[in-house]
Amino acid sequence: MNSYFTFFRSAPRLLTFGFALTLFSNFGQTFLIALFGDDIRAEFSLTHGRFGMLYSGATLL
Questions:
Q1: Domains in the chain: how many in total?
Q2: Is residue 15 part of a domain?
Q3: Cα–Cα 20 to 30 A to 55, which of 18, 31, 42, 46?
Q4: What is the pLDDT of residues 38-59, one digit of tens each?
Q5: What is the domain extent for residue 30?
Q6: Around Cβ 60, how many Cβ atoms within 10 Å?
Q7: Residue 43 within any structural domain of the chain
Q8: What is the reported pTM?
Q9: Burial profile 24-46: b = 16 or more Cβ within 10 angstroms, e = fewer
Q10: Average pLDDT over residues 16-21
């Protein structure tokens, strides 16, 4: 546990960078899919399962 606190004190810039990347990465594809998933499924006549399979496959690539 002390090693965590030592790291927090010794690398504040690195931690700030990591938190910023985490914060700004949330506004990418996850919110886009959440907002437009229904429209995308309707346009391409996809079921929930097929859409999920395509989304997970594209994410892994």
A1: 1
A2: no
A3: 18
A4: 999 999 999 999 999 998 998 8
A5: 25-61
A6: 6
A7: yes
A8: 0.53
A9: eeeeeeeeeeeeeeeeebeeeeb
A10: 90
